[in-house]
Amino acid sequence: MPVDMELEAVLRPMQYPMVPYPPKFITLANGKKMVIRQAAREDVPAILKSVHPCLFIERDYYDVVSARLYGELLAWYRYRVKSEYCLMGQVDGYLVGVVNGRMENEKVGMSYHTLAIDRGLRIGSHLFAAKMEYHMEYLNQDAVLIVAESPIGFRRWMIEYPLELTNIPHELGGGDSYRLTREIYFKAKPRLVVGDRPVPQELMDEAMADIKFADDDTIRERIAGLKGR
Amino acid sequence: MRDVAIIGAGMIPFGRRDEDSLMEMLAYASLKALDDADLGDKSVDAVYVANMGGGMLQHQSAIASSLVDRLSLLPAAAETIENGPASGASALKNGLLAVASGYYDYVLVVGGEKMREVTGWRATDFVATMTHPQAEYPYGITLPGMGGMFTRLYMEKYGVTREHLLAVSLKNQEMGTLNPYAHVEMALDREGIFDSPHAIVNNPTSADPLHLYDLCPVSDGAAALVLCPLEMAKKLSKPPVLIAGFGQATDTHTLQERDDPTDLKAVTLAAQQAFERAKLKPSDIHVAELHDAFTILEIAESEHVGFFKKGEGGKAAAAGKTRLGGQIPINVSGGLKARGHPVGATGIAQVVDIVWQLRHELPKSRQVQKAQNGLTVNFGGFGNNVLAFVLKRVEQ
C-alpha cells in the first residue's frame, strides 16, 4: 500500500521513549520452558495469524478479546497508537500467548489485552505478570489502569493481585478502571511474578527464529475443545 | 438373592462439553452401555439415574423420567438418585438390589453431571451445598477447604508430606494422558509444579496445604452400566463381571463431631462390608479406583480400605507401589484427578473402568495384567456417605 510520508508525519502519534523488556523464561507445569520476549513491530503480521482463529471462538470471550487485540496490534503496526508494546510467550518456538499495552503518559500505563493461545498452563497469568513487570520495573511507572473483559481475567487480575477500583474511565470502554499501583505490584510480586534471566542462548535462538504457529484447528481445539489441563 | 453381573459398560469422554445438554450426555453414555450389553430384542426393566446438581445447575428435575423417554425405554421404571458425589455408586447399589431381589432382570444405571456451564465459583458453591447448612456452610467452608484441613491433620498425625501428595498427582495425571476418556490429558512435571521457584504460580496454594494440582478438575461427563442376573450373563459373549460385594456406611455430617477427623470410618466400614460379602480381602484386589477428589484422599483411602497400614499410604505412593505394575495399582484411569469429577457420574465411571480392566479390554499401557478382582470407593460428602464395590471377573 502506498504511504504518503508527509501525511504520515501528521497522523502518527508521538512516542514516549520505552526501554526494552528484557526477555525471561519460565518453567511451566508440564516442564516446557516458555520464553517471554518483546515483539518487534515487524512481528505483528506473524502474530496476527495466530490471533485470527481466536476471533471466532465465543468460549470465555475469546472473540471479544482477540478481535480487540487484533485491531490494537494492527494499529500499532501501522503507527496509529501512541507508545504501544507487545510481549509474547513462546514454547519450542511456537507462539502460545500475547499481551499488549501502552504508556498513557510517563507515569501511567494502560493495559490492553492478554490472550493465551494455549490453555491450562497459566500462560495468561505469566504473561499478564510480565506486562505488569514491564510497566513497574522497566518503564518505571506509578500505576497501570486495567479492565477485564472475561470472568477469567477478572479472577486473575482484579482478585488475585488484588487491584483497586477507581472511577477513572478506561480507554477500552466498559467499566471503570482497576488500578495496579507500585505498592500492590511489589506486594503481589513474590507470588505472581516469576521468571529467570538471562534466557539460555539455545532457548533464545529458538524463540528469535521464525515464530512458529499451531494450525487453526489446533488453536481452536486448545482453546475451545473438550479437554482441559 | 441372585448374583448380579455387569454386562454393559459405557462412558463418554469427560471434559468441557459445551455442546451437550445433561440429558444428551446421559443418553450418549446409556447408549454406549446398552450397545456393549448387546441385549438384542430385550429391553431394560428399570433405569436408575445418578445426578447431584440438575435441579440447581440446569433447573431440571425428574431427570430419570425424562431420560427413559429420550431413550425410548418406556415403560421402564425410572428413578433419579441423589447422594452427593456418591450418587453414582448409590444408583449402582439400587440397581444391584433390584436385580438381586428378583424384581427386575435388566437394569440400566447411568450417572452424569454438567458442571462447566457455570463459573468455577458457582460449581464450588454448588458442591458445598452438601456441607452442614448451619454449622459449616454459612461460615464459608468449601470441599477444598475441608480437604485442606483434613490434609493438615493427616500430615501432623501420620507424617504425610507434600512429596507424597506430589507422587499421587504426577501418577494420576500421567495415567490420564493414556485415557481417552480423561478430562485432563497433560502429564505434569515435577520441576514445573514443585521444585522450580516458578511453581508458585504454576501450582498455587488452593486450600493450604493443598495446591492446584492436588485437586480434581470440574468436569462434564456421564457413564453407564447394564446389570442382569449372573446366570443370564453367562450366556453372553463377553466375560461378565460379578458385583461380588458392596458396602455402604455413613458418618457424622460435620467433621467437628468426629472423635478423630482423620479417621474415615465410613470408608473402612464400607470396604469391610464389600470384602466380607465378596469373601475376599484387600490383598486379593488387583486394581482399585479410589475417590481422589484431592490427592490426600487417595492416600487416606488406600489405608482405610486395608491396602496399607495407617501412615504408610503416602510412602507407598512415593515408592511407586500404587503405580501400574506396582503392588496395588490405584487409579490407573487417572482417577478423579485426571479423568475428572462430574459428581453424579464419578461412582459409575469408577466401576466402568474396573469392568474394562477385568475384561482385559484396555490397551497394554493401561491394563493391569491378569486382573481378576477390583475395588471401587465412591466418597460422598466429606466421608459421611461412602460406598465400596468389589468386582470379580467371571471366566466363561
Major sheet of chain B: size, sense and barrel closure? 9 strands, mixed
What is CATH's topology name of chain A?
Answer: Aminopeptidase
The run of helices and strands of chain B is: EHEHHEHEHHHHHEEEHEHEHHHHEE
How many DSSP H or I helices of chain A? 8
CATH H-tier superfamily of one domain in chain B: Thiolase/Chalcone synthase
Rg of chain B, alpha carbons: 19 Å
Structural class of chain A: alpha+beta
- Strand order in space, largest sheet of chain B: 3-2-4-7-1-8-11-10-9
Name the helix and strand elements of chain A from N-terminus to C-terminus, one letter apiece: HEEHHEEEHEHEEHHH
Q: Specify which chain pair forms the largest interface.
A: A-B, 29 and 31 residues
Which CATH architecture of chain A?
3-Layer(aba) Sandwich
What is the residue-mean pLDDT of chain B, rounded to a whole number?
A: 97
CATH superfamily of chain A: Gcn5-related N-acetyltransferase (GNAT)
The main sheet of chain A comes to: 8 strands, mixed
Beta-strand proportion of chain A: 15-25%
Polypeptide structure, described:
- The complex is a heterodimer of chains A (229) and B (396).
- By secondary structure, chain A is α+β, with helices and mostly antiparallel strands.
- Chain A is built from eight helices and eight strands.
- In chain A, strands 1-2-3-4-5-6-8-7 form an eight-stranded mixed β-sheet, sandwiched between helices.
- The mean pLDDT of chain A is 95.
- Chain B has a domain at 4-119 and 218-233: Thiolase/Chalcone synthase (Peroxisomal Thiolase, Chain A, domain 1).
- In chain B, strand 5 and strand 6 (210-211) form a beta hairpin.
- In chain B, helix 4 crosses helix 15 and helix 7 (162-176) packs across helix 12.
- The chains are: A alpha+beta (229), B alpha/beta (396).
- At the A-B interface, helix 4 and helix 6 of A face helix 8 and helix 9 of B.
